[in-house]
Amino acid sequence: MSRYLLTTPIYYVNAEPHVGHAYTTIMADILARHHRQSGEEVFFLTGTDEHGAKIAQAAEAAGRTPKAHADELSSKFRALGGVLDATNDFFIRTTDPQHGAEVRALLQRMHDSGDIYSGSYGGWYCTACEAFYNEGDLEEGRLCPIHRRPVEWLEEDNWFFRLSAYRDRLLALYDERPDWVIPQARYNEARRMIEGGLEDLSISRSQIDWGVQVPWDPQQVVYVWVDALFNYWTALTYGAGEDGMRFWPPDLQLMAKDILKFHAVIWPALLMACGIEVPRRVAIHGYVLKGGEKMSKTTGNLVDPFPFIDTYGIDALRYYLAREIRFGEDGTFSAEGFDARYTGELANEYGNLLNRTVAMIGRYRDGTVPADSGADAALADEVASVVAAVTAAFDGVDITRAVEEIWVLVRRLNRLVEERAPWTLAKDPDRAAELDQALFSLAEGLRAVSVLLWPFMPGSCERALAALGQDP
Ligand code: MSP
Fold first, then answer.
1. Closest C-alpha residue for ligand 1 atom 20
2. Model pTM?
3. 43-91 pLDDT tens trace
4. Which residue among 34, 51, 126, 461 is the active-site one?
5. Which of 47, 129, 220, 255 is the most buried (most CB within 10 A)?
6. Which of 35, 54, 99, 129 is catalytic?
7. Does the pLDDT of residue 299 top 80, yes or no?
């Protein structure tokens, strides 16, 4: 059985989860379910990023200790995963003691390989990003290019990682694997960052203590991004049962473009320094926008997913996000758009088709799906080609195209029901064979649709399959 390791970023616990976080977790879950359905042994990892100045400041503002704050917020992210029907196999917290111990071991490995030295550094720091910026990368008025908030000058004596020494090895990785970052535009962007020259990376902090201690220097804690990136590895050492390492390397690491540099430049270099195999693929998706801007705590344009889930059900949210936001591009979340897709597509095109089909099988054939006479070979071919198209879309990590391909079949079946008009056939006993075939084709087409749609809308599709007399 082939294995598939799939990850989401671990989310910061400075604030409550919103639809932006839900988006990544849902997309990852759709992929996880698709790969399991294809017979692979999947390990799907998500969790929370809990150390560093950003979290310490949020805790202070909330009048709590960093740990109490992290416990509270992490449990909300974990609960959100449950509500989203996410089938993650583990939920890592960077405050797990096993994670901290592994991070220390990995740092020691980098130290032993000669990639770490002490130095001093001064630079413009954005706490929201937990990252330094060059003067030239800042926006007018010394604002962080991502958060558009003032950066601060930070000067420290730190431990440094010789990132600059990895330029050629990183470029070789990009040459060997033209699709290791997808989509192509993001691959090009990351490659340009490497070609443009890499500065060594400060990997410890002396002015904060909310973090993992540097093994050889108890006065310093590990830089939160290094601590966080290593989660993908440490999780397997204690969260994946015996021999969890068999899942390494990650087959797909999913995230939005805000953290491209960390995952496509810094992360592979850290792994190379530790002598660990790099991930197979990094997939970058777009932003969920609200009012033209990225949904984020900083802009304050947050959408709380819970009211939508209460009104429409979790499957509708999963479907809407997968379909509305073209995977890899930015897309807008709107209550009107949600309602339109719910009514037009889920309720009318899929729900009604299913209800009508099940009702007709009940009325005309006592609830038993008639046998196939083989008269609809063309339709069977169409179903097979949709299955192939959906599989190909998933292979290219194009989640939106996968659901669009399924919808081709949904619309085909809606046309079929109108063309065959089983209610007319039912009036004429001479056309019983035609009626049998029409009902079979509809039931069989809906079975295929429901199996294909299951990664997107697991609960609804299981109910649909049960209504069609299938074992979900
Ligand atoms: N803690 C770091 C990640 C460390 S991974 C080793 C972090 N956390 S975060 O809470 O800010 O999460 C960022 C990620 O959340 C994005 O890369 C994306 O996956 C998801 N999203 C947050 N807001 C989003 C949107 N508005 N739209 C799409 N994805 C969003 O960065």
1. 21
2. 0.96
3. 999 999 999 999 999 999 999 999 999 999 999 999 999 999 999 999 9
4. 126
5. 47
6. 129
7. no
Chain centroid to Cα 38, Å, comes to 18
| pLDDT number for residue 303 | 84
450-461 residue pLDDT tens: 999 999 999 999
Convert 333-345 into a string of H (helix), E (strand) and C (coil): CCHHHHHHHHHHH
Please identify which residue in the block is written with the tokens 């294995």. 3
Q: Residue 139 C-alpha to ligand 1 middle, in angstroms? A: 21
Name the H helices within 135-252.
Answer: 167-176, 184-195, 224-229, 231-238
- Tell how far the Cα of 136 is from the centroid of ligand 1, in angstroms: 24
Exposure class string for 156-167: b at 16+ Cβ within 10 A, else e: bebbbbbbeebb
Is 18 annotated in the active site? yes
* Tokens (6 digits) for 376: 């609809």
The DSSP letter of residue 266 is I
DSSP-derived secondary structure for 289-340: EETTEE--TTTT----HHHHHHHH-HHHHHHHHHHHS-TTS-EE--HHHHHH
The per-residue pLDDT for 1 is 73
Q: Give 375's contacts (C-beta < 8 A, 6+ positions apart).
A: 437
* Least reliable range by pLDDT among 94-103, 199-208, 405-414: 199-208
- φ and ψ of 10, to 5 deg: -90, 130
